[in-house]
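We emphasize that the prediction below concerns an isolated chain of 141 residues; any contacts that depend on oligomerization or on bound cofactors are therefore not represented. The input was used exactly as deposited, without trimming of termini.
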Amino acid sequence: MKAVVTRVTEATVTVGDEVVGTLDKPGLLVLLGIHADDTSDKADTMARKLHEMRLLRDEESCATADAPLLVVSQFTLYGDTRKGRRPSWTAAARPEQAEPLVGAVVAALRDRGARVETGRFGAMMQVHSVNDGPFTVLVEV
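Result of the prediction step, given as a token string:
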């Protein structure tokens, strides 16, 4: 399981003309990729890391600052570009495996008391964000 996590001052996800997720205050934009070998045990670990890592200003975490998270599924994080000119997606989990695991991470975050917004799994989404810093890290479990 892999996440590209960006500290943002605001972020919005739209599908067509519909806003499906938005952060109206500073928090984290999380692009979440699921590997073909991932299982549900990694969901709790990822949620804990995302909620408790000190990624916000003044070394705060989402847990200590009550900051929101916007979680967007992103299978392309497991694109392999080492050969040729076209990425290979074989390491990415298939949708029927990935969707429940993305949902499990979101549910685990909410169980921890986090305010979580989401994109729409499998949809063509437009993600707008204002990076705070800029500050972006890769989180893997």
